Every structure is written in structure tokens, then in C-alpha cells.
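Lecture notes, part 5. Sequence design as translation. It can be helpful to think of inverse folding as translation between two languages: the language of shapes and the language of residues. The source text, in C-alpha cells, appears below.
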């Protein structure tokens, strides 16, 4: 079997990037709901400047964020995905 492990630093960086993207999306959603900026900062841990800048986020930016996340997820899965023969072997276990 091939060693397809992903370096720990790569996984940590991907996790941190995903966390930041998730927190940013939560903040955008909260802004749309009219929640107070200070409360958003407290809940997400994002700097006030970042949350303030999110007030100008367009729907297009959200689509780009989702597209980037999906592309990153797909490329990460391709790095760890089993080849067809290995995948078939696991089904019998």
C-alpha cells in the first residue's frame, strides 16, 4: 500500500484555514441577522476590524468562499483517497 499520509503541518494549516473561513461565515451570517458587532467579536474571536469589514461582503464573495472551500476539500480528499483496488478491498472487511 502506498504511504499517502499528509504531513501534520499541512493538516494543521488546512484546519486553521477552515476554522477561520468558518468563523468568518458565522460572522457574516450574524451580521445579516443584525447582531451587534461587539457580540460577534466576542463570540467568534475575530478582530473588530475584520468584522467591520465583513459588513461590506457581497453575496458573490460568499460564493467565492464556498467555491474555494469546495476546491480545497476536493484536492485534500484526492491526496488521501484510496486507489480503486484498495477501495474495493475495504468493502469486504
Amino acid at each position: 500500500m502506498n504511504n499517502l499520509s499528509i504531513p501534520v503541518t499541512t493538516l494543521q494549516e488546512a484546519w486553521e484555514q477552515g476554522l477561520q473561513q468558518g468563523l468568518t461565515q458565522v460572522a457574516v451570517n450574524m451580521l445579516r441577522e443584525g447582531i451587534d458587532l461587539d457580540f460577534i467579536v466576542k463570540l467568534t474571536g475575530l478582530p473588530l476590524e475584520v468584522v467591520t469589514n465583513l459588513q461590506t461582503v457581497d453575496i458573490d464573495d460568499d460564493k467565492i468562499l464556498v467555491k474555494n472551500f469546495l476546491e480545497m476539500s476536493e484536492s485534500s480528499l484526492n491526496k488521501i483517497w484510496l486507489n480503486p483496488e484498495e477501495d474495493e478491498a475495504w468493502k469486504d472487511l
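The translated text above is only one of many valid answers, since several sequences can fold into similar shapes. DSSP finds five helices and no strands in the chain.
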